[in-house]
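Entries read sequence, tokenised fold; example below:

***
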Amino acid sequence: MTAQLLMGHTSSQIEGAAQAAPYLRLRNLSKRYGRTTVVDGVDLDAAASRFVCVLGPSGCGKTTLLRLIAGFETPDGGTIHQNGRDVTLLPPEARDYGIVFQSYALFPNRTVEANVGFGLEATGVDRATRARRISELLSLVGLTSHASKYPNQISGGQQQRVALARALALSPGLLLLDEPLSALDANVRAHLRTELQALQRRIGVTALMVTHDREEAFSVADQVVIMNKGRIEQTGSPEEVYLRPANLFVARLLGGCNSLRVDMIGDSLAVAQGLKLQTDGASLNGSNRTNVCIRPGAVLVGQEAQSSPNHFDARVVSVTFLGDMVRLLLEPVDNPQAVIEAEVLRSRLDRIPQPQEMIGFALPPRQLMFLGGA
């Protein structure tokens, strides 16, 4: 990484790169282990200088996808192009990337600066250039004062910064991150992902991270890729995939979701598990609409619900106090089986309801999502 690169790209340069041909392009990429297909015909474009997060549950194929891109696994079909070059069958050392693992993978018998400089040393970079480069990188990740320490003398978050600096040492065009923050405690993880995003923005490297953490993906990603059973369910910005999920799987993966089976649907009315619902016509696009979903935070409760369409009376089953939020589990009088979860700001309630009380709630038509999927 040159000093110019360390100063960072301008926002216009990054935007221009994003509009160019994809930096990373996967086409019909597949991987099988025996009779099990782990990656199943994946197509994916990642623009230059963008942060892409592959999000999905354990076993969905996201880590195998990253290993295929890295060259640790050989695909059974499909192609991988990076910066216009076909790298599908190239060994890892012939590809242009740096990688950060969940486990840090630092050398315990080497100091922080020796860990950062390992790749530079292995590729024959001269001592003076190597020292200058290590100094730049340690400054970049805020570890200059820890250069002479060993990994067991610094914290987990600091060790992950060392791993990140080492991955960037050879100025790769692509940064791969394999659940890099999952081994850290919540506070450190939240702080470090902010630093990670700022660093990626500053140097303009294309980054692809796999994670099972929705909050982590949303906080750093320009593009979120939702995987399930080896396939991509949806790709888009964090806002797009959250507000307009492609199906019920995506909606549930990305947060709490009340889901009711649709029994009947028309132009402006639907019946879902006995509840008659006015609908927003725009929400009815598409042919596969077997479920209606609404986020718990979109459910109106108490006085706010009284003037809204789709108003129902319900019995409060349980109340969970979450500090600024209160979570209510509600059984509609019209159909107690259609249990609704509501999350309400405590400040918007006159008082916190108690279990067994009766209360009004509403499902605003514009917040209803009619989706397919089991």
Remarks:
- Residues 314 and 332 are 4 Å apart (CA to CA).
